[in-house]
Design brief:
Elements (H helix, E strand, L loop, with lengths): L1 E4 L18 E13 L4 E12 L2 E2 L1 H4 L2 E4 L4 E4 L1 E6 L3 E11 L8 E19 L6 E18 L2 E16 L16 E15 L4 E17 L15 E17 L5 E12 L3 H5 L2 E3 L2 E3 L8 E14 L4 E14 L2 E5 L2 E2 L11 E2 L1 E4 L2 E10 L2 E14 L4 E14 L13 E10 L2 E10 L20 E6 L5 E5 L5 E11 L4 E8 L19 E8 L2
Parallel strand pairs: 17-24
Antiparallel strand pairs: 1-2, 2-3, 3-8, 4-7, 5-6, 7-9, 8-9, 9-10, 10-11, 11-12, 12-13, 13-14, 14-15, 15-18, 16-17, 18-19, 19-25, 20-24, 21-22, 23-24, 25-26, 26-27, 27-28, 28-31, 29-30, 31-32, 32-33
Length: 527
């Protein structure tokens, strides 16, 4: 499959004429083959490869800096793009259908995957480009068995992360991840039980035991004095037990009630513990003491079908999650005398970086947090050949340690979809919307990309520095039209008109503007 996507102009700025084009190309290749060994065993192979051209960062190319000499806003970057994103995947799947005392069905999957990408940037004030390259190699082995109502198996994954930079002398932030290499090993065993007591009641329960081991190293050439990292290696080992219980109850043919009670977890990975990168005035540094977080969750779903006067399916889902040892990116105090054990410690949340200073942040266990939400929706057959769909989603979060709002909490959003069938034509009217999010509800570490929201005003501090005050996430809505024509049982063609009124908006926490008015033609052929 080969396709080409061309984005719009990068900015309305006369000083950006030399910027690279924001379009990119992607090539995907997939090959699947199945071999039947005998009546009980078969092998399936799956090989995939994909690559892209350079992928410019539209949001970074839009960044400007005030030039006090000329009193103009000039581009901050000459170039900022991802290099070709190369991905290779290959797997062998062995399936068995011969019954015995241990299992009725069995499956073994061995796979290998390699992902390569790079970040390339050059500021207008710099003479050369900085290139950071990452390569990830992944080997996994899965086994799955089923015996009656019982399912069980295992999963083992091994990750290698190689992070390099063209900066000759490794310094703070030269590589995105530890430049001595990182390894993450994970092995898990699971057991799942499904029981249908009768037509009205069903039970599903599962338990999983997971062992996670992480090791990452910095070379001796990386300056660690300011970071207070002991030695040259980050190590983490965690063994966690998790599980869930799901109950489904059908009072009658028109009602469905389900409940899910679960314990989940997030064990720190290489991105959590070892990443070093700069974003605006913030510098994210490693935290060698990071521990897993645990999520205790309760979910309740109710579905009701109404037959008269029109056929409507209504549904609602509510959830509540309590997180212990919650991993939150927060201000990190750095010991500036860490390199001298005889000197008294001097703690600060700013350290020197390049020509100025940066605020230090790191992923930390803050204690506890709560996330809860609600989804409401319906599907209705209004008239013959007319259908109406709608849903709305509410999500709230609370940091119980009172250290600022939680990140990744979107504002209220939803959609309304109206469809009509006319012969072989399927016509659709699609209305999507999102509410506003106040600037005071953004996280303090920059995870929600507050700097990508509109600027409300710019004030001058007492020492003459410019202070940018952002407005937060504005509400937005779009209207999309679709027409699908069924040519025959194997072929259909679709014409879509997206963002009919050409609204400019960004999805919450995104640094890239959503597409403007656009036309999409799709041809589908099946066999």
């Amino acid at each position: 499959i080969y396709y080409y996507e061309q984005n719009g102009d990068i900015a309305e700025n006369n000083n950006m004429d030399n910027q690279p084009n924001t379009g990119y190309q992607q090539l995907d290749w997939i090959n699947k083959m199945m071999f039947k060994l005998n009546d009980y065993w078969r092998i399936t192979s799956n090989t995939q490869y994909s690559t892209t051209s350079n992928v410019p960062r539209f949001d970074k190319l839009n960044d400007v800096e005030y030039n006090h000499t000329n009193s103009t806003f000039d581009p901050k970057y000459l170039f900022w793009y991802y290099g070709p994103q190369n991905r290779f995947f290959s797997s062998i799947n062995l399936q068995g259908f011969k019954q015995n005392k241990i299992f009725d069905r069995s499956e073994f999957i061995l796979s290998y995957q390699q992902v390569e990408e790079s970040r390339n940037q050059q500021k207008a004030s710099e003479e050369s480009m900085t290139i950071r390259e990452e390569k990830v190699d992944i080997i996994s082995l899965n086994s799955n068995f089923k015996k009656g109502n019982l399912s069980y198996g295992s999963e083992t994954i091994l990750n290698w992360v190689d992070s390099k930079s063209n900066i000759e002398e490794y310094s703070l932030g030269a590589t995105r991840y530890p430049n001595g290499g990182s390894i993450l090993f994970s092995s898990a065993f699971y057991l799942n039980y499904l029981k249908r007591f009768n037509k009205k009641l069903q039970l599903e329960a599962g338990v999983r035991s997971t062992l996670s081991i992480l090791e990452a190293s910095f070379t001796d050439s990386l300056s660690r004095d300011l970071l207070a990292i002991e030695g040259t290696t980050i190590k983490s080992k965690n063994h966690i037990l998790s599980g869930n219980i799901k109950l489904i109850y059908y009072p009658n043919n028109l009602w469905k009630i389900s409940s899910v009670t679960s314990k989940g977890f997030h064990s720190p990975n290489i991105d959590d513990m070892g990443k070093l990168f700069v974003k605006g005035d913030n510098l994210t540094i490693p935290n060698t003491n990071l521990r897993p977080e645990y999520a205790y969750s309760q979910e309740l779903s109710i579905t009701k079908e109404i037959k008269y006067p029109i056929n409507i399916l209504t549904y609602g889902t509510a959830f509540y999650t309590h997180i212990e040892n919650a991993i939150i990116k927060d201000t990190m105090l750095v010991n500036l005398n860490a390199g001298n054990p005889d000197a008294p410690p001097f703690w600060t949340n700013q350290i020197p970086y390049e020509v100025g200073s940066k605020y230090t942040f790191a992923n930390q266990n803050i204690g506890s947090a709560v996330i809860y939400g609600l989804t409401l929706g319906f599907e209705a057959n209004v008239l013959k050949n007319y259908k109406l769909y709608s849903d709305i989603n509410f999500t709230k979060g609370k940091n119980e340690e009172s250290r600022g709002p939680l990140a990744h909490i979107p504002p209220t959003f939803g959609k309304i979809l109206f469809e009509r069938q006319v012969g072989k034509f399927q016509l659709a009217f699609d209305f999507r919307y999102a509410f506003a999010k106040d600037v005071n509800n953004y996280d303090l570490a920059g995870v929600d990309n507050l700097e990508e929201s509109p600027i409300e005003n710019i004030t001058i501090s007492e020492n003459g520095e410019e202070i940018i005050n952002y407005a937060g996430h504005p509400r937005w809505s779009t209207i999309n039209l679709n027409c699908n024509y069924i040519i025959n049982n194997y072929t259909s063609i679709q014409l879509s008109l997206n963002n009919l009124f050409d609204r400019h908006y960004k999805v919450f926490a995104s640094g890239i503007s959503a597409p403007g008015r656009s036309f999409v033609i799709t041809l589908r052929v099946t066999n």
